[in-house]
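During the reporting period the student researcher (J.K.) took over the structure-prediction task from the postdoctoral fellow and processed the backlog of single-chain submissions. One of the processed entries is reproduced below for the supervisory committee.
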Amino acid sequence: MCAKATMEEFEALLNEALEIDTPQEGAVVKGKVIAIEAGQAIIDVGYKMEGRVDLKEFSNPGEAPSIAIGDEVEVYLDRVENARGEAVISREKARREEAWDRLEKAYAAEERVDGAIFGRVKGGFTVDLGGAVAFLPGSQVDVRPVRDAGPLMGLKQPFQILKMDRRRGNIVVSRRAILEESRAEQRAEVISKLAEGQIVDGVVKNITEYGAFVDLGGVDGLLHVTDMAWRRVNHPSEILSIGETVKVQVVKINKDTHRISLGMKQLQNDPWDSVETKFPIGSVHKGRVTNITDYGAFVELEAGVEGLVHVSEMSWTKKNVHPGKIVSTSQEVDVMVLEIDTAKRRVSLGLKQCMRNPWEVFAETHPVGTVIEGEVKNITEFGLFIGLDNDIDGMVHLSDLSWEQRGEDAIQNYRKGDMVKAAVTEVDVEKERISLSIKALDADTFSDAVDGVKRGSVITVTVTAIEDGGIEVEYNGMKSFIRRSDLARDRADQRPERFQVGDHVDVRVVNVDSKTRKLGVSIKAREIAEEKEAVEQYGSSDSGASLGDILGAALKGDK
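J.K. obtained the following structure tokens:
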């Protein structure tokens, strides 16, 4: 009985010893390097178990293996025994497990970890974090895009863990976060020593279309293109180059965003302080066209002082053309100062004021009555436009085209490009209007014919034609038509056939229309007027005398 108990105790102790001394598969165990051969290290992991590990598993990226006989190392036990009776172990897996434990603690504490970039993959790089491989996105390498990452390869440096998932074996790190943090600390220190208005030296680091970034010794400031010079600067590269040392003034510091605005022109005298003295209103100066827009052209009077010539002040005659067709960039022009607004730093200039008003010149050289010759530039529904000297036009209204024809008919006789003569009838300089007349070149036959003739006058006309509706008569070359109803007072005598061509007939003028150039005459009106006059002179309706008696007395009196 006693012997049986002793055997059970021994077996239990043996099993306990085996459990203690024999490592479990999937665990990290300590071992001792007992030999190095054929590129492998032979490691004794205890309990008469040995395993082999490639020497490359003992090296860091970019470094040679550091292992020697007698070194104690930790390895990962995959299997206790393989086909050859050796333990299957891995130094790399052991380092990985160790690294993950360490990295999880650092991630939880938001601490930095050391690592080295050793490879390039799509979208970024791979980083060895002392056994664990992490992904470094390309956007997290530096604060600015990196064109060549060669100098960073294999270099041991700190990283910030952004994200990690042990189950999936995924770690994402950032080098940029470390740089931004140190950069922020450095910026804060430098900015604390700067003050607005302070003059400092800086080095131009980068040039863009809108300005340049200047390094002030650890912190960058923006020198905007508008603060580089008082004059217009089209591109910063006109006055700056990368690497150049410049003297600048601190214009503004934003303590919250750590942004610094710099200026160079602030170190020079402001030319606008003396603009009103140098360029009084009404004075004429020579300037250079610096920029052309749809609404005008900018002209530089001196460095830092530009004025605008509005499109309406560019030409006396060219009203609806683009300024680029009148002036060109870099052209030197004479301009007159029209207005100055120092508060808004604006100068209004005039280009046409440096040339004489062509309408004034025309009025002086072409008084009313002057005959001119010009080309028909345009034909409109109300007249002709004739091209004159100095790119100005004169207009011939429909009513001034012909004495004989209606304006609508007379205008059909003209075409664009025709050369015509006309007389100047009016020049309105303020309204920039010149009135011309073609018919004024000829005598007004109507006015000459009816000179002295008034409404109510009795004139003698000659019958020139007999028609069913009346007769055509002529007076001093002017034709008129007497309708049948106006041929006599009595209806029985209102017969055109009682007249013959060549007869002379006394008629009364009932209308003189200079606009329509018509002379209205009537035999009936003359007879009625004569009857009325006879009644007034020789009797009345109350005297009992007949009309025949009155007319007889009138005729007798005439004899």
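The committee noted the following: DSSP finds nine helices and 30 strands in the chain.
J.K. will present the remaining backlog at the next meeting.
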